[in-house]
Design brief:
heterodimer, A: 810 residues, alpha/beta, Rossmann fold, 4 domains, 32% helix, B: 95 residues, alpha+beta, Alpha-Beta Plaits, two-stranded antiparallel ribbon, 2 helices
Chain lengths: 810, 95
């Protein structure tokens, strides 16, 4: 039998207070809280255990503070919600009572217990007891720590120059911080620049945006980097080193935007800004109000390729001689303290829906194409022309929810803006051509915002016909190119066949394809729809889980202009708070070294994703650079000699947790190691979503799955655990660059060992689950239930012997 | 910006793109092939005929693509090719 880690180091002076929270009925509804508290009172080291209605309330916190003084508590354990939610709250309370915050530990009996075992009170109570026991076992071994302070660079990077990015950049620049605004298109402005009017006020979109664009372009604190993309991000909160790839414009900033060059340019192409409804030349500016107004040459169509100057017409036409074909891409290096991600959203592509005939029929257009057609600055000068014969249509149909609210025909979520956009568009048509007959085919009209319902009413009063039920099919009359919309009116339960001149597909919003790249560069999470995941959906809606990074606009989810601007100002304020403080403390989870045990093998140096461990050849030892350390702990897992361990997640502390799980009926339990950022968050998400799974799992939190050393898995098996699960972020999505590749290597090695010893490798499971994949985690645990049930006593004993032996050798 | 362009530009008939009419002085050509190689629109190709100098002069293969940059004239070492602007309504090839 492996000796209990806690026993060997049990300190006489440990005085633990345990607080078990009811959380109203959130926990008490399916866990016998009083019994858990009674159980906790008998645990070694515990001098006080009680249950509270809401431990996080002021009263609850005051109670803890009081007890720390009155009962001379030197460790505090709160059994309530996820530490990802309230650990900071309780740590602060402890600090206020004079207790080092690293002497606090949490047991997650809500997200990981009561919410996921709603109908199994007995089992949930037993699990809660185990979770408290684990927390107490760890608390026993907690050590006080001092956090390192890191200075914050007073500069911000804003990625994306749409209205959200512009607003965030302006707010930060006005506060006095240096801002780098990176935009991959030739001009800032984003989607809002392409829209004609905005709802519900019917303001001209570019008229209200252009002054902001110009402000951003001229602000002394804002450096615009257009036609540029972020190519690399290193560092951490307060100290990001960013590389931006600036693609050449082939025109210098001295361009006066006179446009003489475009007049003589012999090549043309569809203008992307106008969704291809107008042409542009090889040298061009995407739209009149572009910021910067500097022209740009599209090298895909320019005749001068590979250094051969075949055509010099623009050069000759340019009076100021600002065209330079020798420009090369350059990489700009920036040092910033905070990052605002405002990468926006793309529009849904309806050509994948053959029943609507988009791309096949000339007169089926998207709502974005409509915006360009109705826009006075657009290709038709504001005249709504149907593409087939360039005549003003007499009847128009809008089809709602194209690409939204259906996982069969697009995306499952509601895109938020399309209902109001259509209502606004229908009114615009009525304003210019009152005789036009307008039909809107919808599922539900969602007019939920300030002034929205009034606008909806106005449209109905103006004679726009709203018909519930999307068309099943759009058919074209080949001679006239007008369209038949065929479907069912679900309110009147009858079939309709409506003939119109022009059909407009109200397309939804979706995440940019390249937001995956941003996600990797900044180690962020995205939800199943591809939008970035906020740190907390209610209380930290603009913060990323990664420190120092904030979201603004549609990157976080579909939203209208007002919400984007609101969020942008919020993100700027959040970033401003950090930079105003000027310094940030880094969690004391860096490694501690025991030089006397070090054999100078250098393995820790190799696995460190941050190059934070330096090998000292002369002294045959390693040095840790604490400020560079990310705190994954993979070095500690790699060290076979115990010469390194991670603060606050020490080998002894984790072993104590394993021992607490495996003390009683270990064969019926799954010991799960989950990383803080993805898989532990996935378990939290499963809890919040009330996904039910078997109550036999006990989750131990580490910062990274790379912290899980093979010895910990072996220990669990040596103590008779039924199964072990190691869960981390998806490969490539690791919050510590690539530490989870070490996890993979280690688990594969363990699998080999198990197979070589004639053990079933099923009992050790490896799972990659992102923070949004609660379902994936829950179903994995459900899948593991039969493995636990099937495993025989002999097999447990055999495993125990194999791993006891290997641990003994180690 | 979305690359999904499904409709033809509304102004495609109005856009003025210069169109060139290519003239070859075949017997002056020494068959270096520079004009074929350097034409950015790949308008020219080698012909099968043999000229007075005993080489294959170029042949105009895609005259409609010519946008009159005049680079062929610039690179021709023998002054054997020149381009004039094609007038509206005066289409069609000439020898």
């Amino acid at each position: 039998m492996i000796q209990k880690a806690a026993d060997s180091k049990l300190k006489d002076d440990v005085r633990i207070g345990v607080y078990v929270c009811h959380c109203g009925l959130n926990i008490a509804g399916s866990v016998d809280v009083a019994e858990v508290a009674k159980f906790a009172a008998k645990l070694p080291g515990v001098v006080l255990a009680q249950d509270n209605l809401y431990t996080c309330s002021d009263q609850g916190q005051a109670g803890i503070k009081n007890d720390i003084k009155e009962h001379r508590l030197n460790r505090v354990v709160v059994a309530s919600c996820s530490p990802r939610l309230h650990e900071p709250t309780f740590r602060k309370a402890c600090e206020e009572a004079g207790l080092n915050k690293y002497l606090f530990e949490m047991a997650n009996i809500r997200e990981h217990c009561s919410w996921v075992h709603l109908h199994e009170r007995q089992a949930a109570t037993e699990k809660a007891k185990d979770l408290v026991k684990m927390a107490v076992a760890k608390a026993m071994l907690l050590e006080p720590s001092v956090e390192v302070e890191v200075p914050i660079t007073r500069g911000a990077l804003v990625i994306g120059g749409g209205v959200a990015g512009i607003q965030a950049a302006l707010d930060l620049a006005d506060t006095g911080y240096k801002v780098f605004l990176v935009e991959k298109e030739p001009s800032i402005g984003g989607m809002m620049a392409r829209i004609d009017k905005t709802f519900p006020t019917m303001d001209c979109s570019i008229c209200i945006l252009a002054p902001k664009m110009s402000d951003a372009g001229h602000h002394p604190n804002i450096e615009l980097l257009t036609n540029a993309e972020v190519s690399d991000v290193k560092g951490y909160i307060g100290n990001f080193h960013v590389k931006v790839l600036k693609k050449p414009r082939y025109v210098t900033d001295d361009c006066s935007a006179c446009g003489e060059c475009a007049k003589v340019c012999p090549v043309v192409a569809p203008n992307e800004f106008d969704v291809g409804l107008a042409t542009r030349h090889g040298i061009y500016t995407p739209f009149a109000q572009a910021v910067p107004s500097t022209y740009i040459i599209d090298m895909n169509i320019c005749l001068n390729k590979n250094g051969v100057l075949a055509c010099d017409k623009c050069l000759k036409a340019c009076e100021r001689q600002v065209i330079n074909f020798d420009m090369k891409p350059e990489t700009v290096e920036l040092e910033v303290g905070t990052v605002i991600v405002a990468t926006g959203a793309d529009v849904f592509d309806p050509s994948g829906l053959p029943h609507y005939g988009y791309g096949k029929y000339a007169n089926v257009i998207t709502s974005l194409e409509f915006e360009r057609l109705i826009n006075a600055g657009g290709p038709s000068g504001g005249h709504l022309l149907r593409p087939s014969d360039k005549q003003v249509p007499k009847s128009v149909a809008f089809v709602q929810c194209v690409g939204s609210r259906s996982d069969r025909n697009g995306r499952l979520y509601c895109s938020n803006v399309c209902c109001m956009n259509t209502i606004k568009d229908s009114l615009l048509i009525k304003e210019h051509w009152p005789e036009t007959e307008i039909f809107v085919f919808y599922v539900d009209i969602r007019a939920f915002g300030k002034g929205f319902e009034e606008l909806y009413k106005r449209a109905r009063n103006a004679g726009v016909k709203f018909i519930r039920g999307l068309p099943a099919e759009i058919v074209e009359n080949r001679k006239t190119h007008s369209l038949w919309l065929i479907g069912e009116n679900t309110l009147q339960k009858e079939r309709y066949e409506v003939n119109v001149d022009l059909a407009i597909l109200s397309i939804g919003l979706e995440a940019w394809k390249d937001s995956e790249m941003i996600q990797r560069l900044l180690t962020l999470s995205r939800n199943q729809d591809g939008f970035f995941l906020e740190a907390h959906p209610k209380l930290r809606p603009v913060d990323a889980a990664t420190g120092g990074i904030f979201f603004a606009g549609c990157a976080e989810g579909p939203k209208d202009i007002k919400d984007s601007v609101t969020q942008a100002s919020a993100a700027a304020a959040r970033a401003g708070i950090l930079m105003a403080q000027g310094k940030v403390t880094v969690e004391a989870i860096t490694p501690i070294t025991f030089p006397e045990k070090c054999k100078a093998c250098g393995l820790c140096v190799k696995v460190c994703p941050y190059n934070a461990i330096i090998f000292d050849k002369d002294k045959k030892r390693v040095n840790i650079i604490e400020a560079a350390c990310g705190g994954c702990g993979t070095c500690s897992a790699e060290c076979a000699f115990g010469a390194l361990t991670q603060k606050h997640f020490t080998d002894d502390q984790i072993n104590a947790q394993i021992d607490a799980v495996t003390e009683e009926e270990p064969e019926k339990k799954i010991v799960a190691f989950c990383c803080n950022w993805c898989s532990y968050a996935a378990a939290d998400f499963a809890g919040v979503s009330r996904m039910q799974y078997p109550p036999n799992v006990r989750i131990i939190r580490t910062m990274c799955s790379g912290r899980v050393s093979p010895k910990m898995v072996e220990r669990a098996f040596a103590r008779g655990a039924g199964a072990v699960m190691v869960a981390g972020c998806h490969l490539g999505d690791c919050h510590y660059i690539n530490a989870n590749y070490q996890t993979l290597k280690r688990v594969e090695r363990l699998w080999k060992k198990m197979e070589a010893s004639g053990l079933s490798r099923d009992r050790l499971q490896l799972l990659w689950a992102s923070a949004a994949e609660g379902e994936r985690l829950a179903s994995k645990i459900s899948e593991m239930k039969p493995i636990i049930e099937k495993v025989s006593h002999e097999e447990i004993e055999k495993t125990r012997k194999v791993f006891e032996k290997s641990l003994g050798e180690g | 910006m979305p690359e999904r362009i499904k409709h033809a530009p509304l102004d495609k008939d109005r856009v003025k793109q210069p169109r060139g009419e290519i003239h070859l002085i075949k017997d002056q050509c020494k068959g270096c092939g520079y004009c074929i190689e350097f034409c950015p629109k790949k308008v020219l190709e080698e012909s099968d005929e043999i000229n007075a100098r005993g080489v294959h002069p170029p042949r105009v293969a895609h005259e409609d693509d010519c946008i009159m940059c005049g680079f062929c004239t610039a690179v021709c070492p023998d002054f054997a090719i020149f381009v004039v602007e094609k007038m509206e309504g005066k289409g069609g090839k000439r020898d």
